Fold these 2 entries.
Entry 1:
Amino acid sequence: MTRILIAEDEARIVSFLEKGLQSNGYTTIAVGTGTDAIALARDDAFDLLILDLGLPGADGHEVLRQVRGRGERLPIIVLTARSGVDDTVGVLEGGADDHVAKPFRFEELLARVRLRLRDDSGTASATVLAAGDVELDLRTRCVTVDGVETELTSREFSLMETFLRNPNRVLSRTELLSGAWGYDFDPNSNVVDVYVRYLRNKVGGDRIETVRGAGYRLRG
Ligand code: CA
C-alpha cells in the first residue's frame, strides 16, 4: 500500500487531491499545518509528501529544511503558488524532488507522483498513451489516429490525456473537468461538451461515446 502525506491548508485542494489519489489506489493522510507535516513526514510512515509552500505553523520551506535536516529521504513534491523562479530554485535547493505550480491539473500532479514513486513500472516512464488505434505522444502533444498525426491545442491534449488514462471508463463531466482543467473550474460550465466536440473532429466522432446522464467514454 502506497501512503501519501498531503500537507495543504486549503480544503478544496485537499479534497481534490485526496479524491484523485484515492481513486488511483493511493492511501492519503492530510494535515493542514507545517508543524504536523514535520512530525509525520518520516520514511517509514509515508512513501511521498505533497507539500504546499504557504502553510500555517511552519511554511513549506521550513518543513523541507527540518525533514531533510534529520535525514528523511522520502520524495517530496512541492506545490508552489505561482511558477516564480525564486520559489522553484529555493524548493529544489531545499531538497524537494519536484514542484508543481498552482493551479495544476490532477493528471499533471499524478504523472509526477508516479514518476517519484516509480511504483507502476511502464506507465511511470511511458511517453505514449494508447487505446485502440489512437495514440497520444506526451512529449510532442500530437495525437495519431489510425496512423495519421494531428496536432492538439493544450486543452484538447489535457482532455485526450484524461480519456487515454481511463480507456473504456465512463467519465463524468466533473471528472473530466478535474482531470483536464484542474480544480479552478466552474462546475456548471459546458466547456467539456465543447472540447469533446473539438476532439471528436480530430480523432473521429465514434471514438468518444456519449453516455446519457453519465458523461463520456473513450473506446479502447
Ligand atoms: Ca496554502
Entry 2:
Amino acid sequence: MNHFVYKNGEFFCEEMAVADIARAVGTPFYLYSRATLSHHFQTFDSAFNGIDHLTCFAVKACSNLSILHLFAGLGGGADIVSGGELYRAITAGVNPQRIIYSGVGKTEAELRFGLESGILLFNVESAQELERLQRVAATMGVRAPVSFRVNPDVDPQTHAYISTGLAKNKFGVPIAEAFDLYIQARGMENIAIKGVSCHIGSQLTLISPFIESLRKVKDFVARLADAGIGIEYIDLGGGLGITYDDEQPPHPREYAEAIKAELEGTRATLILEPGRVLVGNAAILVTEVQYTKNNRGVDQEKKFVVVDAAMNDLARPSLYGAFHAIVPVREQGGAPEMVDIVGPICETGDFLAKDRALPPVQQGDLLAVLSAGAYGFSMSSNYNSRPRVAEVLVDGSHYTLIRRRETVEELVNGELLPKFAESGHGH
Ligand code: LLP
C-alpha cells in the first residue's frame, strides 16, 4: 500500500499535487511519502511482535538522513556496509547499539570507526577479517562483538546480480567452514561471539528460500551450542521483494509468520535487514519530457520520449533491465503508443523504459517513474557531469526538501588543477 494516487486526473503524493512540487523544485527529483515510509516500517516491524527482534534498515537502499532519522524515530536500527553509511546512520540519530555492520571488504579504518562508535555487531565475512578485527580491537583495548555471515548455499530465485547466498557468490563464509572460525574466534581475546547472520539475496518473491536458510542457520546454531558456544542473535538479512510490475511477493505478515513459526523454541534475538520492502514503493522519480522524436528505419519506426532523468539518476533499468512503471503526472487521453523512454546520456543503454505503452505525451509534460525509492537515489551518480537531483519528502499537505539539487560548482569541488597549468607550461 502507498500514498501515490490520481485525484481528478492529477497524480498526488498524499495531499500534495506532484505537479505543484515540480513547479517549485524543478525536475528531475525523487519524491518520498512519509506516510508510506512509516506505514511500511510499522507493518514490517510489528509483524514480528511476539518475539525479540530488531529491524535494521539496510541503509544502502536509501541513505538520505531524513529517511534514516524517520526510521530511527520508529525504533529502527541500521544495517550498514561502509564507513560512510556508519557516519550517515550516526548523524541521523540511529542508536549505535542498533547498528550492524555487513560487507566483505571492511578496511582497518572502517573497523576502528565501528568499534569507536560502539556498534552492536560486526557481520564478519572471512578469516582474514576476523584476524584484522582482533588486531584493531586489541590496539583499542576493547572487545569486538561479532557475528559471522554464513553462506547457506540457498538459491533465492532472483536476478543473478542480486543473488548473494549461493556458494558461487562472494559473500559470507561457507557454512561448512564457519564452525572452525567460531572455534578460532572463541580463543581470541578481543572478540566476543554474539551471533550468526546470513543474507541470501534481494527482491525475493518466495518465502521458501528464507525458511530453507533459516533451517540451515538453526542447525548450525545447535551445533555451536553443542560445542559450548552460545548465540544471542540470529540475523536473517533482508531481501523481501516488492511489486514493480506483476510480481506477487508475500506480505510482510506472511513472511514474519513463517519465520516466527520456524524460530519457535529458539531463544536468540532475531535481526532483520530489510531495505527495498520499506522504501521501494514509498517514492517516485519525477521527470519532464524534453523532446519526442520518431526514428524511422527501413522496416520499422521507433518512437522516443526524451526526458530529463537518466541512467545516472536511476540506474536500475539500465543495470538490471529492471521494470519501473511510468505514468503521466496529469492523466492523458488518447490511445497509448509504444515508446522508449530515454534520458540525455550518451549511451544506448540509457533508458528508463523500453517498448512501453504510454499515452501520447509532449514537451513539458511530467512523468512519474514509480517504485523508485529503493536503490534509486542511493545508486545515482554524476556520470556525464550531471548534478544529482533533489529529494523531497511529503507529509500530508506539506513538503520538505530533504536534499537540495547539486550544483555544477559542487561537481568540480575537490578537483585540483595541476601546478603546471598555472604557469601555462606543459611540463
Ligand atoms: N543485508 C545485506 C547484507 C545486503 O547485502 C542487502 C542488499 C540487504 C540487507 C537489503 O536487501 P533488500 O531488503 O533491499 O533486498 N541494487 C540492487 C539491489 C542490491 C541489494 C544488495 N544487498 C537493486 O537495485 O535491485
